[in-house]
Structures are given as structure tokens and as C-alpha cells.
Amino acid sequence: MIGCAILGYGTVGSGVYNVIRSNCGLVNERAGDDIEVRRVLDLREFPGDPVESILTHDFEDIVNDPEVRIVVEVMGGLKPAFDFTKRCLEAGKNVCTSNKELVAEHGLELMRIARQNDVNYFFEASCGGGIPIIRALNDCLTADCVDEITGILNGTTNYILTQMTDEGADFDDVLKQAQEMGFAERDPSADIDAFDPARKIAILASIAFGSSVDYRDVYTEGIRDISAEDIQYAATLGYAVKLLASAVKSDDGVRAWVAPMLISPDHPLYSINGVMNAVYVHGNMLGDAVFTGAGAGSLPTASAVVADVIDAARHGGKRAYCGWKKDEKLTLASNEDIKRKFLVRIKTEDVGNATSVFAPEGFLDTITIGDLDDEVAFITPDLSEKDFEERANTFGKIVSRIRIG
Ligand code: HSE
């Protein structure tokens, strides 16, 4: 029997309990022993719930229980999750988590503490929900030098962009739906301002490239300014708007960014819709690979957490390999010289000025969207980020601009 405890009985915590209970036969068989949930920590009461009899409000009941060998931390946030995780690891308990905030902030330190105590700190569910991308990077793509990871790593924003595209729905209404369906963060800004996918791409890049990427160094632009009109322009031109998170390695370093991008049907992530996430990986031997699955939600996320519980049970006192191991920060290269095209919307009266500043091949003035007949759009030639920024400042009156991926 392997005792387990769950810290936090919210969307993911209740999912973890459900997965362990619903699939108990195969979970136990694959873990090589019976997994028993002995304790669930939450400040709330759950009268009539199956966990009522094992519910505790006191973390000490868990950390001091020698029978608890695996702790699932699904509280989210840094406090008290960081302290609780440290204390569990120091007490010789494995910890499995979906807490991307904590992993992005203190992952390396927590893995070090785990190592010192001959246990594991696993965080598969912190990136891409149910998609086994961390295990793929650590255990499967080990013969490759990975040089690009590009993902749709936030289910809420992908759901919002898909609904806005398919239903012509309003941003605020769709966000509310996503929150009701349990995908969105309590503070929606982590999703829509894209700190959440920035943390996730920082975690994946740290694993793929070995040293810690600080998510605060990742250029991050969310979807708050994407309008229904932008999406209609994109659709008319055959593009989808997706919030992409990328980390790309070249000879002069690693670059990383999160931003809404226009992608065409031949892009591997074009048809990833709704709450689905997907991660495109390029390896120097493998070439292209795409991993896709549900990126948020109770059971998909819990599925990844419980897979970690099984892995922790299988590893016993042995430590698992993780590519993120160098005790140093990875300084990202500047994005200024990345070259790409941009879709730019302007007022019709500014066409002359735009022609001299951006030299586009032509203007898309045949698109009449709603009452936007006083504007036109154009696609720039390939421009570096720096060059585009300078021209945009000179021009001054852009209605909106989106990068083309
Ligand atoms: N809010 C996150 C998302 C949850 O929408 O992807 C999963 O990390």
C-alpha cells in the first residue's frame, strides 16, 4: 500500500481523486502497489462528498503521516504551496503537481531538494494539461537536440479565440463561459494576458535546453486586444489567430516569445481548436512531432497528475531524469532581429503614408467587414521586429497589427 495525500480539493484535486477511484484497478496495477488516498487538505467542508471522512484542514496531519509517501499539490499559486511542497520533500515524500506558477518560479530549487531527499518532484500536468509533453522531452526525445518548441499552451485563450472565430461571439461572454467550465484561472489575466503560457514555455524550454528560463524574460503579449474584426480579417485571408508560445534555439542562443499569431492551414497547429492544446517540437534527428490533447479541465489535468503519482510509485527511492538540471539561468537572445510579416490595419486616409513607410505589395481594400469600410489592411514585407517597431512609430496610426507565423 502506498499512501497518498491531495493538497487542494478544487477542480484538479477532485479530478485526481476521481481518476484514482474510477481507474483504481489499472492505476494500482501500473503503480505496482495499491494507491490509497489517505488525506485531502482543503479549507472548505465537503459534506456528503466521498472525501468527507479523510478531509483535513491541517497540513501537519499530512506532513507528519509516515504512511503518506506521495503528495499531490494542486492548490495553485505560490503561497502556501511552496512551503508545503518543500516540507513534504524534506520529509521524504514525493510531490506531484499541476502548479505551473510554482514550477516556473521554484522548479529547479524544488527538484534539488527532492534529489537531496531521494524522492521526486514531478510536474507533467503543469504544461499542456493532459498532454504528456514533459515526459516526452525527458524520456523519449533524449537522442535529439531539440531546437524548437512551439505550442498552444493555454486552453482558455484557445477556446476564446475559437468561439470568437466560429460563433462571432464577444470576448467577455466567451471568457465567462470558459470560467464556468473550469478552464480559466481565477484571475483571468493570467490567461488573457498570457503569463500562463509564458510560464509553460519557460518550463518546457528549461527542460529542453537544460538551464532555467525565467518566464519574466519571455516577450509576452496576450489576446486582450484581438477584436472580432481582426479575426474576420484573418479568416478572410485564410488564417487562424492562435496564441503561440515559442522557444527556438539557434547558433546565437535561445529566443522565446508568446504572442497572438496568424497561421495558415499548412501550419501544424492551425486546426487545434477549443480547449485543446498542442505542442510542436522539432528535433535535429526526429524532425517534426506534434503532441496534442486537452490542455485544461479537471479530468485531463488529473490524468497527467495521476500518471506522475504512478511514476513516483514506480521509482521508489530512485530519482527520475529531468533535462532541466543546470544550476544557472539561461539568458535569452534578443527577439529584435526575428524577421516575419505582419498584418496591419489602417484607416483608408493613411494609405499614402503607409505606402511610403511600409512599402506593402498591395492593400486589401476589397474586404468590407461590418462598418469598417473606412479602413484597409496590408501585409508587410518580411521585417525584423525592430524594423517593424521603428516603422510603426514613424507611421503612428495603426489600428491593429498581428504577426504572421
Ligand atoms: N488556465 C489554464 C488554461 C489551465 O486555460 O490552459 C491549465 O493550465
> Which ligands, by name, code or SMILES, are bound?
L-homoserine
The CATH superfamily of the largest domain is known as: Dihydrodipicolinate Reductase, domain 2
The number of distinct structural domains comes to 3
**How would a textbook summarize the main sheet?**
9 strands, mixed
Can you tell me the CATH class of the largest domain? Answer: Alpha Beta
Round the mean pLDDT to the nearest integer and report it.
95
In DSSP terms, counting alpha (H) and pi (I) runs of 4 or more, how many helices? 14
Q: What is the rounded distance between the termini?
A: 50 Å
User: Assembly type of the shown chains?
Assistant: single chain
CATH topology value of the largest domain: Dihydrodipicolinate Reductase, domain 2
Query: What is the name of the CATH architecture of the largest domain?
Result: 2-Layer Sandwich
Gross geometry? elongated
